[in-house]
Amino acid sequence: MTNFRIGIDFGGSKIEIAAVPPKGRPWLRRRVPTPASYPAAIAAIMNLVRNVETRIGAKPSVGVCVPGRTDQATGLVRSRNCLDGRPLRRDLCNALEREVRVANDGNCFALSEAVDGAGRGARVVFGAVLGTGCSAGVVVDGRLLIGRNGLAGEWAHIPFPFDPPHEPPARRCWCGRLGCLETVISGTALAVDCDGPGARGAAAVAERAAAGDRPAQAALDRHVRSLARALAGVINLLDPDVIVLGGGMSNMDHLYARLPALIAQHVFGNVCATPVRRPVHGDSSGVRGAAWLWPGEPEPAGAVPCPAAEPSPRMGAQRQPRRDRRPRS
Fold first, then answer.
1. The pTM is what?
2. Is residue 324 domain-resident?
């Protein structure tokens, strides 16, 4: 039982936990609704971890998958939910009295697929999550690439290569910048392109296109061409061995049929052998990738040690671990 790792996926609507053995499927999965407040979210994670520990009779490592990114200098999360501006890793280290590793959903997806999914056996894996928003992660030789500033894989916030005479003006991204990739290639961007501001639901656009709706078909065509340009930039810079698509849009068959030829039109030399694959683990990628943040090796390149376990000023007092106690794993 001590070989289990705990993975936690902190989503917009639910928090999921799973005990993941060295080999095999996640075990003992539990889900609870995501609380609206940060203190309640910390309490929910603590309760989930304690329940799993009771069942397996051990205190395994804990990894957490979150939307958004953690600032390497301040330790604060930047996200669109109750985690925004909070020192999540520090507070969880304190609450659980051990080292905790935290990574964003794109990184966890890429790691999950690189370990034993669609990228298994590849040296360099680029995992792109396309859903309500979009994110990505890079895994090299089985290890997650973090980077000096913790920004490796922040593909969603690279400026999209617009062609002004043929495309609409750039839209404002939630991050505050103009024209990020997320505003063009995410599921929300597809819905907005098809039906106007405020529209959501890329799946509905795909269903309408399949039924012969011409505006929906045109929107899908524009989207796949834009996605090809965005992925061509990744190949020109990183040249991964494989690209794995995740998120709700990874279920769209036309992406795999059309992307390889479209990408080749935009890469240097107009030749591209990089495969674009469906994910193997789907909705399990969050908890699985979070668990694999602990592969029994040193932390991913660029990661920083867990901050001193102190209560967050925005949470109020919490029980602190003894200063002479070493973190347990």
1. 0.84
2. no
